[in-house]
């Protein structure tokens, strides 16, 4: 397979070792460096190297091409342990989007809208992050670009749960298939933020079930970003992860690290700034890009 030009690909870092005539000790050193640099983290890097060493020994190979294939298979197998399927069969299917401010939540909602519209779904976005006036206008712009309707607050500072209620109610009345609800990323206290999310969930669940709670994470912040999002993971009932800004760094390993650390499947990945740069997560395709 030809090497891809994906910015988060390991291909450049691995090219030299896979072009060598044989596997030697420098191969393992180079592979370890590449995995650490790509933000797999020391624990996963050590496990992967140990597994590959055992595989190479078991099959008595010295061919770097075999090692490359084994690396692909190992990463794909680990990524495929969790199901990346989006569960959006309910009508309306309600999706809460959560995450700290600055991770690309607003743009992700616009891109997700476009993703769904491209599959022939009708979408409405609820602007329930009413604490920031600018957030509503930004969200409206991205929703419009994504081909979605927008439910705005009826007055400044409106209760977020009431905006969520009105969004779901409108979807039911107008036969809109998918509801995406934006939520606040920051209040004065984490407990306040989680209380607000809890209230939104309770209000929506009186109308219909919640199909997905998607947590948006910024790949460029790596493990730090995950630490900031721990409160959401602990209290918000997160069902899937969305990894954004993979285009901005060679941090592809974070995708595996975050899934294994949280036990929550990655369902969407954002790989650019354009409206169409959000895709469903497929382990085989992702690893093909990552390893080359």
Give a verbal description of the structure.
- Mean pLDDT is 89; it is low at 1-5.
- Strands 3-2-4-1-5-6-7-8 form an 8-stranded mixed beta sheet, with helices on both faces.
- It starts with 10 loop residues before the first helix and ends with a helix.
- By secondary structure, the chain is α/β, with parallel strands linked by helices.
- 50% of the residues lie in helices and 14% in strands.
- α3 (42-58) crosses α4.
- The chain has 2 domains: 11-79, SRP54, nucleotide-binding domain (Four Helix Bundle (Hemerythrin (Met), subunit A), Up-down Bundle); 93-291, Rossmann fold.
CATH superfamily of the largest domain: P-loop containing nucleotide triphosphate hydrolases
Number of domains: 2
CATH fold node name of the largest domain: Rossmann fold
Strand content of the residues, in percent? Answer: 5-15%
Measured distance between first and last alpha carbons:
7 Å
H and E string:
HHHHEHEHEHEHEHHEHEEH
Number of strands: 8
Please write out the topology:
Blueprint: H1 11-19, H2 25-37, H3 42-58, H4 64-79, E1 93-98, H5 105-118, E2 123-127, H6 133-146, E3 149-151, H7 160-174, E4 178-182, H8 190-205, E5 210-218, H9 222-228, H10 230-235, E6 240-244, H11 253-262, E7 266-270, E8 278-280, H12 283-291
Parallel strand pairs: 1-4, 1-5, 2-3, 2-4, 5-6, 6-7
Antiparallel strand pairs: 7-8
Describe the structure concisely.
With 292 residues, the chain is of the alpha/beta class. The protein has twelve helices and eight strands. It folds into two domains: 69 residues, SRP54, nucleotide-binding domain (Four Helix Bundle (Hemerythrin (Met), subunit A), Up-down Bundle); 199 residues, Rossmann fold (3-Layer(aba) Sandwich).
């Amino acid at each position: 397979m030809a090497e891809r030009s994906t910015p988060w690909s390991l291909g450049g870092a691995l090219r030299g070792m896979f072009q060598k005539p044989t596997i030697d000790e420098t191969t393992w050193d180079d592979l370890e460096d590449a995995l650490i640099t790509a933000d797999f983290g020391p624990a996963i890097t050590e496990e992967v190297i140990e597994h590959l060493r055992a595989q190479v020994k078991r099959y008595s190979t010295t061919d770097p091409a075999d090692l490359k294939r084994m690396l692909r298979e190992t990463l794909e197998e680990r990524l495929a342990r969790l199901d990346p399927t989006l569960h959006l069969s309910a009508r309306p299917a309600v999706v809460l989007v959560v995450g700290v401010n600055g991770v690309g939540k607003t743009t992700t909602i616009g891109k997700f809208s476009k993703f769904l519209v491209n599959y022939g779904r009708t979408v409405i976005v609820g602007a329930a992050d009413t604490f920031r006036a600018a957030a509503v206008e930004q969200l409206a712009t991205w929703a419009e670009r994504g081909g979605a309707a927008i439910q705005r607050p009826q007055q400044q500072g409106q209760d977020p749960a009431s905006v969520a209620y009105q969004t779901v109610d409108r979807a039911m009345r107008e036969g809109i298939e998918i509801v995406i609800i934006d939520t606040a990323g920051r209040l004065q206290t984490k407990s306040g933020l989680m209380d607000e999310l809890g209230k939104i969930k309770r209000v929506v669940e009186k109308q219909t079930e919640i199909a997905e709670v998607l947590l948006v994470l910024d790949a460029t912040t790596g493990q730090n970003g995950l630490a900031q999002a721990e409160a959401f993971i602990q209290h918000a009932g997160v069902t899937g992860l969305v990894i954004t800004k993979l285009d901005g760094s060679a941090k592809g390993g974070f995708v595996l690290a975050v899934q294994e650390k949280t036990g929550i499947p990655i369902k969407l990945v954002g790989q650019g700034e354009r409206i169409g740069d959000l895709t469903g997560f497929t382990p085989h395709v992702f690893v093909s890009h990552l390893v080359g």
